[in-house]
Specification:
The protein is of the alpha/beta class and 896 residues long. Helices cover 43% and strands 17% of the residues. Its EC number is 6.1.1.9.
Length: 896
């Protein structure tokens, strides 16, 4: 089979992805093999592929492909999250374009539109993941609002309610005026904002007589960033220890513009140093003010509508947006003489992660989950190593959050999502039940708990109540469904003892972003213990944030985020995968640059061209094998690299594992091994060397497959190898297993590579043609058997002859490799001055190096704390440097 001169990613990717799907290589069913399971962090159903998804899913695919090749039953479960706030916003926007207002629709009508939108757009991101090569078990695709998963959410709510861990109450919440819903603390993004600090005069009730006998109004000044909320002020608070305001104790003041009279209260909460030392207390619009209000029994006046406009209780500027009202009220205060001054001020403001609207603290009736008891086993799992956070630098922040966990507000004022299973009668009484019939039964039990009644009476009661019964309007927080994900995707609620949940749970690895460590990962661990009695996974690989080369987080607003599909079309999926993984160590941000994808494409081209080279060799079965040492070296080099790669995988250093593979293929195999064994131009190669090379290439292809699935599958089926059956694919080929390693042989090989490199350097410096063979003399100070290696030196450096000598050769160009000295007697006179300059430069470098090594070894703290092998390595470095310095000094002495 001929092979094209260039690798065509698009052609290859479509062909092999379709083939893998048709042969069900991604699909998993429980069997006798060891399971290896990953559940995908379900992307929002509104989402399209961005660079963060690319990184996250590339890592998952590398892990799942490697496990599959290692003979494990690999199962990667895909799916999407219904994303209540984001999806509802998308549907509302779509309806608006059609001239339809959500307010004019019933809940059922709106949900019909929402499901239509989901069916049309909801699968885009999963289709895009296929372009990346994601080998998910697509037959197992789940959606957090499909019937069975929604039922699991309802069942878990009822379970926790019956346990006393879910309650309903009025609390201060984070309100998103754009989404018109409460959001959790974790969905609030804090940003530093340039604001204004307004100094407002509040008139003190009662008159004050001046020294002249005239009556003048007295006032105090309050500094605030939110003048639009003064109409909701319930009190002015002073610190009882602040002597400046002793005269205000027991007084009242008037709120500017609306002239409400409010009391002056005292509390040590007030910071004497901030602003003017006085605080306006607005219980309905600030969490700390609310707590002060409860403490001092203050009235609560909420002057904002759900959309952030001022309501009738504000009295003035009714219907105005809060930020428009801020500017207008500042002007009104100034005109009325109540504004003393305005200053620039920077402060942290919370914004909704979903809509980017400024969060409004708001008192609201909400549903909450008690978290303290559930948090403890989830904390213990991480502290005792049952669940590993990778990297472990996140353990302290995880511990702090779990030890200070707050109750979880799980209700959202939306229509898209799982509806709260609470039912109300006409008097506001309520019960929690799965269905309306069950709710009627609960109301009956509540009213007739200790009474014996006839069936007719019971039926009559239900019949009478049924028309008044209404279900809670709110839906549950999206995270209240996704915290069940590792259980619900295997139907662990629907059928708690089914074969899938028993086989695949707990899963192995979770790959996700650190920013959802608490409100998804931690909660999944809690749910695992609460509903399954054990953890949901063992390892949590936390990726970094994908940033541009300037260090900025990639975002649409900055315009610095490339289109992932565009990158795949330009460079190929394998190249983009390599580019993403090149510099993405766990937990550290990835400074992405498109040049990484170009590097990945160059790597694919290198592999392709190396394959074409080997495929083009002609074989002569009668030839002897002159490459035994080269073959032995690469076999050992491959085994050594495999140990390093496996160690990196065990520690989830996927970037380092790829770099080791990259260097093995590009440097060791292509740049060195193939050059060592390739036949002379238009000459055949011996059969033994050829077969060894083909075998090495097959191992390399398998090693590369998890990172570069498409090009490896394409080459795997080439007729260079033995004929493949239709199921004999690289995706299920056995991942390479290492053999013995001759460490001395590898060390000797590094010396030989140095010899070749130095001879090439001499050619460059002296401008000697590569075609001109050079003589070489060796003064051997080591134990290396050069007889085994000289044919490689002859071939790669074009050496005509080699002679072992006992003394330095005066007038020859000299260099060192390891402890050994090499001389090239040249026909023209050597430039003694240039040679002396070169040797002196080497001497200065080695003396500096020796000094740094000795400094380490003379450091008692280093010697006491360092591992024995590290100390031994430093001592070897010292001995090696001393030997080289001695040789250079001898060479300089000969030159005079």
């Amino acid at each position: 089979m001929s092979i094209s001169t260039k690798y065509n990613p698009a052609e290859t990717e479509d062909k092999w992805y379709s083939y893998w799907l048709s042969k069900k290589f991604f699909h998993s069913e429980p069997d006798e093999r060891e399971p290896y399971t990953i559940v995908i962090p379900p992307p929002n159903v509104t989402g399209v592929l961005h660079m963060g998804h690319m990184l996250n899913n590339t890592i998952q695919d590398v892990l799942i492909r490697k496990a599959r090749m290692q003979g494990k039953n690999a199962c990667w479960v895909p799916g999407t999250d219904h994303a209540s706030i984001a999806t509802e916003a998308k549907v509302v926007a779509m309806l608006k374009e059609q001239g339809i207002n959500k307010k004019d629709l019933s809940r059922e009508e709106f949900l019909k539109y929402a499901w239509e939108w989901k069916e049309k757009y909801g699968g885009i991101i999963l289709e895009q993941l296929k372009k990346l090569g994601a080998s998910c078990d697509w037959d197992r695709t789940r959606f957090t609002m499909e019937e069975d998963l929604s039922e699991a959410v309802i069942d878990s709510f009822i379970h926790l309610y019956k346990k006393g861990w879910i309650y309903r109450g009025i609390r201060m919440v984070n309100w998103d005026p754009a989404g018109k819903t409460a959001v959790s603390d974790e969905e609030v993004i804090r940003k530093e904002v340039n604001q204004k600090l307004y100094y407002i005069r509040y008139t003190i009730a009662g008159d004050k007589t001046s020294d002249s006998g005239l009556q003048t109004p007295d006032y105090l000044v309050i500094a605030t960033t939110r003048p639009e909320t003064i109409m909701a002020d319930a009190a002015i608070c002073i610190n009882p220890n602040d002597e400046r305001f002793t005269h205000l104790k027991g007084k009242k003041v008037f709120v500017p513009l609306v002239n409400h009279e409010i009391p002056v209260i005292e509390d040590e909460y007030v910071d004497i140093e901030f602003g003017t030392g006085c605080l306006k207390v607005t219980p309905a619009h600030d969490l700390n003010d609310y707590e002060l209000g409860v403490k001092h029994n203050l009235p609560v006046t909420d002057i904002l509508n759900d959309d952030g406009t001022l309501n009738e209780l504000a009295v003035i500027l009714v219907g105005e947006d809060r930020f428009v009202a801020r500017k207008k009220i500042a002007k009104m205060l100034e005109e009325a003489g109540h504004l003393e001054k305005v200053e620039d001020y920077k402060s942290q403001v919370g914004f909704s992660e979903r809509t980017d609207a400024a969060i409004e603290p708001k008192l609201s009736m909400q549903w909450f989950v008690k978290m303290k008891e559930m948090a403890q086993p989830a904390l213990d799992d991480v502290l005792n190593g049952e669940v590993n956070l990778i990297p472990n630098k996140f353990e302290n922040t995880y511990r702090h959050w779990m030890e200070n966990v707050r109750d979880w507000n799980i209700s959202r004022q939306l229509w898209w999502g799982q509806r709260i299973p609470a039912w109300y009668d006409d008097k506001g009484n309520w019960v929690v039940a799965k269905t309306k019939d069950e709710a009627l039964e609960e109301f009956w039990k509540k009213k007739h708990l200790d009474q014996s009644c006839s069936d007719a009476e019971k039926t009559g009661f239900k019949h009478q109540l049924e028309p008044f019964l209404r279900q809670d309007e709110d839906v549950m927080d999206t995270w209240f469904s996704s915290w069940l994900w590792p259980i619900s995707v295997f139907d662990g609620f629907k059928d708690p003892n089914n074969k899938d949940i028993n086989y695949y749970y707990p899963t192995n690895d979770l790959v996700t972003a650190p920013e959802i460590l608490f409100f998804w990962v931690a909660r999944m661990i809690m749910a695992g213990h609460e509903f399954m009695g054990k953890k949901p996974f063992t390892n949590v690989y936390l990726t970094g944030i994908v940033r541009d080369k300037l260090g900025r987080k990639m975002s649409k607003s900055l315009g610095n985020s490339p289109d992932p599909i565009g990158l795949i079309e330009k460079y190929g999926a394998d190249a983009v995968r390599v580019g993403m993984l090149m510099s993405s160590p766990a937990g550290n941000d990835l400074m992405f640059d498109e040049s990484y994808c170009e590097q990945g494409r160059n790597f694919a081209s290198k592999i392709w061209n190396a394959f074409r080279l080997v495929k083009g060799w002609e074989v002569d079965a009668n030839l002897e094998n002159p490459n035994k040492q080269a073959i032995s070296w690469f076999e050992n080099r491959f085994n050594a690299a495999l140990v390093e790669i496996e160690d990196n995988f065990k520690q989830y250093r996927l970037s380092e594992a790829l770099m080791t593979t990259y260097k093995l293929v590009w440097d060791d195999f292509c740049a060195w091994y193939l050059e060592m064994v390739k036949p002379a131009y238009q000459q055949p190669i011996d059969a033994e060397s050829y077969q060894a090379t083909v075998n090495f290439f097959e191992q390399i292809i398998k090693l590369l497959h998890p990172n570069m699935p498409f090009i490896t599958e394409e080459l795997w089926h080439d007729d260079l190898f033995a004929a493949r059956g239709e199921m004999d694919c690289c995706i299920v080929a056995e991942f390479p297993k290492g053999g013995g390693i001759d460490e001395q042989l590898l060390k000797d090989a590094e010396v030989i590579k140095t010899v070749v490199a130095e001879i090439r350097n001499v050619r460059n410096q002296k401008q000697i043609s590569p075609k001109e063979a050079l003589p070489l003399s060796l003064k051997v100070n080591s134990e290396i058997d050069y007889e085994k290696w000289l044919n490689i030196v002859f071939k790669l450096a074009n050496v005509s002859q080699a002679e072992i000598v006992n003394d330095k050769i005066v007038g020859a160009t000299a260099f060192m490799a390891g402890k050994d000295e090499f001389f090239i007697p040249l026909t023209e006179n050597v430039d003694v001055e240039a040679e002396r300059e070169r040797l002196n430069a080497d001497l200065v470098y080695l003396q500096g190096f020796l000094k740094s090594v000795e400094s380490k070894l003379n450091n008692e703290r280093f010697v006491q704390n360092a591992k024995p092998e590290i100390i031994a390595n430093e001592r070897n470095k010292k001995a090696d440097a001393e030997a080289k310095i001695k040789i250079i000094e001898e060479s300089l002495a000969i030159l005079g």
